[in-house]
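Here's what a typical entry looks like (Vignain):
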Amino acid sequence: MEVSMMLRSACLAILVLWTLWSPLRANSEPYKPQVSRRSEEAVKESFDRWIIQNARKYKNDAERELRYLIYNVNLMLIDQVNSLDLPYKLADNKYADMTNVEFQELFLGFKPLPDIQTSFRYGDGLNLPEQVDWRKNGSVTPVKDQGQCGSCWAFSSVAAVEGINHIKTGKLVSLSEQQLMDCDVTSGNLGCRGGFMDKAFEYIERNGLTTEKNYPYKGHDGLCKREKVKNRKVTISGYERVPANDEGKLQTAAAHQPISVAIDAASSEFQLYSHGVFTGQCGTDLNHGVTLVGYGEENGSKYWLVKNSWGTNWGESGYIKMKRDSTNKRGQCGIAMEASYPLKD
């Protein structure tokens, strides 16, 4: 009974996935679901390798069969997208045995705020460098992993604070996301259930942040460890919003420091992104907090360089290049809609 129910669930999931994957692409021919060109034996061998590479363990044969079916459907999407003349590629990354619905529930946790107008200190953006990569300046800590917890908002805000702290002091210090999850609980931030980068900046302005080493990440909500919080290492003096829906202003801000940005990361293509400049379909329903750490151009495609918090075994070693200068004023996946940055005067 359990097996048949799980298989029926898998078939329903596959039907839903095909429905989601078949809309038309902007500026390209529509692509339609088709039977995989890989043999069943080849798919099973690929799945077996994937299980080993990702150290997956399933509780029984029924779950393994369900995950195999989902993996097979994701593999068909990967093959179809990669066969097109696009500036990005997909891969069977660590999320390849998840439906898109599962993926969204586990890893997306940003909550949008109403549009707030603040001062914007970076002017009109004249004479900006053609490319910026704050990693090369030493202002970006290694990619972290939020795990199966909707704490992206904490990772985004902490990365932005780590960046401005290095720019102002010359010291790159890995700071504590867990402090925000456990202690920033009165502003509307909800730990693994999601939160706001702006509210995190307000908390950090009042309380500062301790180090990752002193208050390490656990991947779940806990009680605030006030003795650890007393050992604060970094403070900020406030934050500002980038004027909404203006990629020019966003570029100006990113030329001066890493920026917290919100995006719509809910698509299956974003889930399975591997490398290149992502121009795939996505909406503007902001649901994920990330950190903009630069911009540039690759093979004629302008991009935003974005640090994610899904570990180094997703995307380009934990990063994604997203289309810049979109025809949509909100930016690719809404990246220009709700951006902010911490101040350290």
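The radius of gyration is 21 Å.

More examples are in the samples folder.
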